[in-house]
Amino acid sequence: MQQYISMDEYALCIMILLFIFVNALSIFHKRKKAQLIISTTFLAVITVLAIVLLESNTYDIFAANLLNIYPFSMFFVALFSVGLIMVNIISYRYSKDYFAFSLLLGFVAFGMYSVAMAYSLIEIVLGIELVSLPTAFMIMVNGKENIEAAVKLFILSAIGITVLAFALVLLFPFDPQLSLTSISSMTGYLPVLALLLVIAGLAFEASIFPFNLWVPDVYSGAPANITAMLAGINKKVAFVALFEILFITMIPFSAAFSSMFQVLAVFTMFFGNIVALVQDNVKRLFAYSSISQAGYIAIGIAAATAYGVESSIFQIAAHLFMIIGTFAIILWLETKNIKTVQDYLGLSSRNRFAAFALTIFMLSMIGVPPLMGFVGKFLLFTSAINQGLLYLTLIAIINSFISIYYYARVMMSIYSKRPHEKVSMDWSIATVSLISLIVVILFGLYPQPFISIASTVSMSL
Amino acid sequence: MFALLVIVPLLAAALLALPLKRFPNIVKYIAFAASLVSLLLAYLVFSYGPFTTQSFNWFSANGISFNISIATLPLNMLLLMVVSLITPLVFLYSLGFMEVPSEQPRFFFEMSIFAASMMLFAISANFITMFIAWEMLGITSYLLIGFWYHKEHAPTAARKAITTILIGDIFMLAAILIIGTTYGTFGFSAIMGSPSSPALYVALSFILIAAFTKSAQFPFHEWLSDAMEGPTPVSAFLHSSTMVKAGVFLIAVLFPLYVKADMLGIILVIGLVSAILGATNALTERHIKKILAYSTIEDLGLMFVALGLGSVMAAMMLFFVQAFYKALLFMGAGYIMKANDEKEDIYSTYGSSTRKLVFLSIVIAAVSLAGLFPMSGFFGKDAVNSVASNMVVYSMLLLIGFASSIYIFRWLFIPLRKSYESGTEININYKSTPRSMLIPMFILAALVFVADYAYLKLPGFLNGSYSIALLSAVVGNVIAVIGIIVAYRVYMKGFRAKLSSTNKMLFNVLYSSRAVNAVYLYIVGVTMAFARAVSAFDFSFDKSIYGLARSVITSGNGLRKIVNGQTNSYVFAFVLGIMFLIVLYVLA
User: Are both B4 and B86 inside the same structural domain?
Assistant: First the structure.
């Protein structure tokens, strides 16, 4: 038995390295379809291996104390791989330079995996860096019109990472190893400062107010496939790092960060939802919507319990699928020059599947039962109430209802009647949005397996 | 799980409706057939189903299980019966009413979901199931009220409805979460068996607010009269068996909790205020459907009064019989409007002598609303009157009864006042009304007669202690008859034509809306003054909703300016954010 498990671990490690290698090769062989198949296969294999390790409940520290294999890390390796598969598929057609994209995707993936499987705080910082900087380049290789967004992301992530690195320096006296374990003897103001800087640096990536002002610019300035990755995966990586640092290293300060995240969650939700009310550009609207979703996810951190983390994990997974599906459709419609809410008028007569899928994603983001978003929000709200945070729950509910106004505006214009000629959807967009749609509906109707996984995952933290 | 089958045909029809956009004819018959199948299944549940509660696990987290659970207890059966009876009739009416083929698939899609969610609501046995149905009702009603979005006021009315309902939904969700985390369960019966706690008071008052928004009770009643912008079948459906009944029904289901929490007084007062408000508004309104809408507010208020007086039976009696006469009245209104080129003012609509039978059935419904023996409306209203132990409440109820018999016959007599000399065009219009609109009206007229009997035959506790007190019955009837006579003298008997030539002043008093207000102010005195005060408050309430929305949007514009595209200001915000965190930490 032991033999098999370690085999899987080796295989996972080798697969990840191979994946980066073959993706790097893509700029030499320049075979588009082959590259798509190869990277999708690798990611799928990584997903399967991670799920196997997750199911077998393995706890192991592997590869010279670099990779920490436990349910939490394996869950996120699998989740991020699925997300990357979807982003990879939609980028195949709509990326200006798919080979450069593939190369960078390898780095991004490695960054994500190292954050998820981090055993030391250094790995987390390097992982975050490996995620955000190649993303900036991904935006840049798409053409001149995207450079502004890319530079913004580059500069601001650089600042975020610097702050994060500085936080580690402050923790160094307490644990020279900087390993991801609970540090018991933390006294004085240094660890407090470190805590604040960690939150600031990661809140930047996780798009939590007031560190998120770059989000609408970059999200709407980047091509929609990259935006899908930014909103769907990169942001979640920051949340994973937050979970790891806050709930393992900083756990003595749980009361402090809980109260901070309560306030941050309230501001983030209101900021996202209120500004979204007046957006006309659909991409920007969903940028703000994803900010507000980050606010909901932060409620789980504010609850600061295993149940809270479990709910956040569920909502992270739900939002990953919803937002990647949404941005896939937005990406495809942008190439048809359909960008604003007005342009969406009569979308249902142009393409019924796109209209239906978008509606379901939006309903799920609102939190309409029985979709995945509802379950996620319900778990988050109960986790908050369990901790006596009734006011936070009420504010979150009010925010959910504010959000109906802007989602309903898009839905109304989608379904208002304007006879239009049909627009057909190509396979890559159709596949990705169909996968998301199935996940959102299926795990809304039958969320139990996902909840149990999220529960073991949060317990393992 | 058998009872859950009832909603399946309707959902299937809804799923078929949109893909079959090109065959509107098939779609409408599929929807109608589905509603008949639902009725059949409801009948089977009704006759063979035991009184049980069943549930299956949806998901569980942190020790709380989220179940979908349904009940076929007497109350559930009652509502299921009403909805499944009214649905096919409304669908049949809609076959004729919705003439534009391109609108039909969307209409039947939304209507089927609307009906299915109300049936799900009827059989729900815990808060989770109930909330799913509750939300679906809200969303579909929003779509249906705004169905003719090209009409001038329809989008506004729909938005007003959804705003009010969403306020209720916020409270409802909060209440559910509070209950779930305090008791660890969501089942109605489990919570009723648990000891009460302070949290329960909060939750119960939240639920009460939610019920008031859904059932259009003061101060949340404004949306219902505006909801008339929707197609008439929608109004007939919404006012009789779906949507607005949900609030009353929920309170009836949770009634033991309200008794335990000693909150009946609030229910009584709000119900009474709403009933008075509805009755007085109905007296002065001129819009043919809005009169009926205010009358619904009054009826629902009376149901709350009955609950507040501690009698679920009386409330459910009125609940049951009201569905039939109100559906019939709305269908009649739609019928009259259609023949009069969609005119909505009762003073510019006319009746006709060509369809005597149809008008007879409308009269039956009106008599039933007025509460005359032997129509079923009498039994409903008398049940409420007879539980009024308090003299003040009783006299208020009599006054409301008097007003309702006046306004409903005002509603009827004004269009009928010169039916015989009216133009031939209207007669032709009446004649050409599709038969599918008329049949359900006849069926409903028959049901209005027998509803009380059917109710008394219902199983369970619902008819436990029903008896008619002779004195109260006579008083109620006499008052209703006086009301009808007054209405007849004032609105019917050529009074108007004669008056306009002889006595200009009196004519103005009686027939111009503002002058009528003055007269009623004189007659009703205190009541009306109170109603005025309340409506002023209500107006400001409505304003405050919009004010909030607008200020939210303007602040959105203000916030947007922060996000100005300048990287350095983002960095500045970052620094500010760190300072903000420090302040937060110090405060914590």
Answer: yes
